[in-house]
Specification:
The chain has 13 helices and no strands. By secondary structure, it is mainly α. The protein has one domain: Orthogonal Bundle (MetI-like fold).
């Protein structure tokens, strides 16, 4: 009798969590899947069309081109953020006044909204009044201003520069906390054995920062795959749609073309790709740790 009573008491305690998951996770997910199987529009109406949206998505050349561009952007920017973040952490990990101030300066852009920073860098890269072109011309690096946003490759690098300036401080803080958490006795023992600075970094700091590197890489990769604001503000998908990211194309289908059902199907496909990529990365990491 007491066992049965204890079971019911346990269910009562679990009920709020179950209700929360049902209302805010299970039901919205059900509605999302159902909408992806309809021809629903933001303007109203729609009917059940089965897998037509998914078949259309797999034939949508623009979606797959935008996905490949997003992957390219992610592959480019993630190592840059990791490398510069780790280097900045190495340079500022000590708690001297100067290095604390430097950490604060590097981290400051992180608190600025992405839309605000993108607008700022769009102005800095402007051909006519942008300070970036003026600086390069004055230094003699270029002879004439560069028109950054009429070439897809230049536009991509302009966005990468702007996002690196804004985000690199986040990775730096993660790495600084890891470096400061390393037992100084380990580093001192390596110094006594004759290990130089970069040897200690390669043999001690990097291995002990492995989990932080994984976390920072995962956050950076997911954030880059979800890129939207920076391209929407700085390139508007141009030139000729060559800088459409996958999320930008999904936005176009939803809020420009009003295709709610198709937009939902594209979102679910992208979600599955994200989950599969994250699961693969975690699986490879666990294999490495157990090897």
């Amino acid at each position: 009798m007491n066992a049965v009573r204890g079971r019911y008491i346990g269910l009562v305690y679990l009920l709020p969590a179950i209700l929360f998951v049902a209302v805010f996770v299970a039901y919205p997910l059900y509605r999302l899947v159902y909408l992806s199987l309809t021809s629903a529009s933001l303007l109203g109406g729609g009917r059940f069309v089965g897998l037509d949206n998914y078949i259309r998505a797999f034939k949508d050349q623009t979606f797959w081109t935008s996905l490949l561009f997003t992957i390219k952007y992610t592959v480019y920017i993630t190592p840059i953020l990791m490398g510069l973040g780790f280097l900045a952490a190495l340079l500022t990990s000590e708690n001297t006044r100067l290095k604390k101030f430097t950490r604060g300066v590097i981290f400051l852009p992180v608190v600025i909204g992405l839309g605000t920073s993108s607008l700022l860098w769009w102005w800095l890269f402007d051909q006519q009044v942008g300070l970036f072109n003026r600086l390069l011309v004055d230094l003699g690096i270029i002879s004439r201003p560069i028109v950054w946003f009429t070439d897809a490759e230049l536009a991509l690098w302009a966005v990468i520069i702007s996002v690196t300036w804004k985000v690199v401080g986040f990775g730096m803080i993660l790495f600084v906390s890891t470096i400061q958490g390393i037992d100084q006795e380990i580093s001192e023992a390596a110094m006594i054995d004759g290990a130089g600075y970069w040897q200690r970094v390669g043999k001690i700091v990097l291995p002990l920062s492995y989990r932080t590197i994984l976390l920072a890489t995962l956050i950076s990769a997911i954030g880059s795959m979800l890129a939207f604001e920076q391209f929407y503000i700085m390139t508007t998908g141009g030139p000729r749609g060559q800088t459409f990211t996958s999320v930008y194309w999904i936005y176009q289908n939803s809020f420009v073309f009003f295709k709610l059902g198709y937009f939902t199907a594209l979102s679910l496909i992208l979600t599955v790709i994200f989950v599969a990529g994250a699961a693969l990365q975690i699986m490879l990491t666990r294999r490495r740790e157990t090897a």
